[in-house]
Amino acid sequence: MKSLTVKGKTYDLPIFLPDATLGVVRGLDSLDLNSIGIRGVVVNTYHLASDPGALVLRKFGGIKNFMKFSGLVVSDSGGWQVFSLIHRNKNSGRINDEGVKFSVGGKKGEIFTPEMSVRMQFEIGSDIIICLDDFTPPNASPEKTLESVERTTLWAKRSKEEYERQLVQRGLDNETRPLIFSVVQGDRSKELRQKSARELIGIGFDGFGYGGYMIDENGGLDKEMSKFIVELIPNDKVKFALGTGTPWDIAYLYSVGWNVFDCTLPTRDARHKRLYSFKSAPENSSDLLNKAFYEFIYINRTKYQQDESPISKYCDCLACTNYSKAYVNHLFKINDTLALRLATIHNLRVYTKVIELLQQEPLQ
Fold first, then answer.
1. Are 115 and 167 in contact (CB under 8 A)?
2. Any stretches that span the bilayer, and where are they (predicted)?
3. Do 183 and 322 belong to one domain?
4. Are residues 110 and 17 in the same domain?
5. Are residues 182 and 210 in the same domain?
6. Which residue(s) pair with 276 in the sheet?
7. What is the pLDDT of residues 311-363, one digit of tens each?
8. Annotated catalytic residue, options 19, 134, 222, 262
């Protein structure tokens, strides 16, 4: 699949979507995103429901008008919050087949259901809606993993039903509707991954995501499982490698069939003064598979205080075409917000350069 079309607009694949949890890629505005080739972002349904909330988003006609960004907007359902807030801390709430009840500050909160998640994503004005799923904790017992798969299927059915109700209520047709994706769960069990994919495909979705951790026992990308799962998904469907990290992992996953990617790494690393760079001019897409083709620059180190060279001579971003390593080092040292902006622009430009090369030619 070379492109996806939603609401009359076509986006080339592969595509990388940075994290814009609350409607902002931290430190950047929409002009910055456009200038470095960012064509879409991922926002978070659960967090946007709290702030700014549905009423504000409805008044502005959705998140795109609110943040003045015209690209693709995918809304994460809130499934990660189920994992991060509850699976890790049972006192934060509880999960059952009805939905998720979060407890914040010792106070019991309203239950968050698959239907609520879908309705909120329509208020967000998302181009791609993702069903609420029960994120499988890493190394869960077989019983817990099966429970997660079955609950994910149940929630996917309810999400699809609510999605169809919303289409009718809002008068949306096949040309104006958002797409809807579901998430394949099953942890490290190939049998349960097959079961999850089979059941979700039977319900019917526009695309499917890789649920749970992509990490193997050595802390790297689980290449075997990621390849196994992508082959379960029909080739006429969009394949979303949720939470994919490094540029070389993106290149590998694209080579086996995944075509949509998102991750917090480039923006988070920028905030922590870790910058990405190519070791040589990126000319061949097959080079992108090799981790040794890249290097990290820890810009706060003393050796860069007088370095007149750009972050990377192979990058055409705002930071690299105008400023030296010494200046960016200085900005971080004095805690000026421009440091965050320049570092984030640079790291995201490295990612979009990888995407552009992958679009231009097949991997060898």
1. no
2. none
3. no
4. yes
5. yes
6. 296
7. 999 999 999 999 999 999 999 999 999 999 999 999 999 999 999 999 987 66
8. 262
Question: In the chain, where does DSSP find H-type helix?
Answer: 30-35, 45-50, 54-60, 63-67, 79-81, 114-124, 142-170, 190-203, 223-230, 247-256, 265-271, 318-322, 325-333, 337-360
Give dist(CA 81, CA 40) in Å, integer: 22
Q: How many CA atoms lie within 13 A of 317 on its CB side?
A: 29
Q: Does residue 76 sit in the same domain as residue 152?
A: yes
Residue 62 has pLDDT above 70, yes or no: yes
Q: How large is the average pLDDT for residues 107-129? A: 89
Q: Is 262 assigned a catalytic role?
A: yes
Contacts of 263 (CB under 8 A, 6+ apart): 16, 18, 19, 243, 244, 245
Among candidate residues 76, 127, 133, 222, the one labeled active-site is 76
Residues 123 and 228 both lie in one domain: yes
CA distances from residue 22 to 51, 110, 242 in whole angstroms, order as listed: 8, 20, 18
Last residue of a domain, one of 263, 282, 300: 263
The residues, ordered by sequence, that sit 6+ positions from 241 with a Cβ below 8 Å of its Cβ are: 209, 210, 214, 226, 250, 253, 258, 260, 261
Answer yes or no: do 164 and 284 share one domain: no
Q: What is the CATH number of the domain that holds 172?
A: 3.20.20.105
Residues 224 and 277 in one domain: no
Counted residue by residue, the chain has a size of: 364
Structural domains of the chain, count: 2
How far apart, in whole angstroms, are the C-alpha atoms of residue 244 and residue 220? 11
* 227 in Cβ contact with 255 (< 8 Å): no
Full residue range of the structural domain in which residue 286 is found:
270-360
Model confidence over 260-303: pLDDT tens digits?
999 999 999 999 999 999 999 987 788 899 999 999 999 999 99
Residues 242 and 275 in one domain: no
What's phi and psi for 256, nearest 5 deg? Answer: -100, -5
